[in-house]
Amino acid sequence: MMSELNRNFELNVTRIRMYQWLLENKNDFVKEKVSNLELFVSLLGGIEQFIIENADYASNSQLNQLISRNLNENRKTLELMIDTEVMRKQSRDKLKRDYKALIESTETNNKKLFTKLSKFITSLSDRLFKQIEYIEYMKTAINKDNSGHLHKVFLSYAFKDLLYLLGIFDYFYKNGIYLYIDAFHNVEQTDGEVLKNLLKVELETSKQFLFLRTANSELAMRGSYQIRQWCAWEIGYYDKLRKNRSGSNITEYLNECFYFRVYEKKIDTNRAVNLLIQSFKQLKSIENGYLE
């Protein structure tokens, strides 16, 4: 059974909490986009909390009504924002079409509806912040704060909500951990060998390993959770490193692997837990610059 410590940690890193964290901590990256983050918070208001508190949220009509209410209440603000942002007409028109489709959706499965809302917010934030901006920001922030004194933890993930990931990075950073997130250091690679070599360097210099469990990182197939290919490769490579280090002066404590998840109270117990992460610990806290 999951402990209260585990769950309390996970409740601190939901999408809305990470957007709020960036606002509350006056993160330099978003200082000119405060109104945009406030809009995202408004779109998600009450939704994630409802999901966390209600095991039957997928079919609960109250959640469907809450999502619809948030979408409608923010329509004018969002359309005005889209019209005033500098973006291509094609992008502007697509965002408006996607938003209209969300409002008019007849989807009764709230999991799917929430996924569509999350993807829309991600699509919007991707147009507001380009990946190269995250990379440039990270270079400046790391050099300025001399992050070399922090323990580095490798984050394995499988989705592209960079703004959410930035919140997670900032949250861990303020709590004494340098969380390595590949998207903030390298542009998208088309050569698999180049990507492997880049990741190997970071995995080899990471003190601990953290896997973010989401619907995107794990696919429910054949009665079990199948971890996506790049996450599986990262897990396998780090496991090999752990075994190679076992006789060195690096303690096992510093090689530990963890996971955390958000939204779901528990992974479906009718499906077998993927053997790749069976030995991982569920993250409950950050203590003195280490995952616990």
Q: What does this protein look like?
A:
By secondary structure, the chain is α/β, with parallel strands linked by helices. The protein is globular, with a radius of gyration of 20 Å. The longest helix has 19 residues, at 110-128. α2 packs across α10, α6 runs antiparallel to α7 and α7 (89-103) runs antiparallel to α8 (110-128). The strands form 3 sheets. The protein has a 5-stranded parallel sheet, sandwiched between helices. The protein has a two-stranded antiparallel ribbon with strand order 4-5. It has 12 helices and 9 strands. β4 and β5 (224-227) form a beta hairpin. Mean pLDDT is 82; it is low at 216-225 and 267-272. The protein has helices spanning 4-11, 15-24, 34-44, 47-53, 61-73, 75-84, 89-103, 110-128, 131-145, 162-174, 192-204, 229-245, and strands spanning 151-156, 177-180, 208-213, 218-221, 224-227, 257-261, 281-282, 286-287, 290-291. It folds into 2 domains: 34-128; 131-291, Rossmann fold (3-Layer(aba) Sandwich).
In short:
The chain has 292 residues and is α/β, with parallel strands linked by helices.
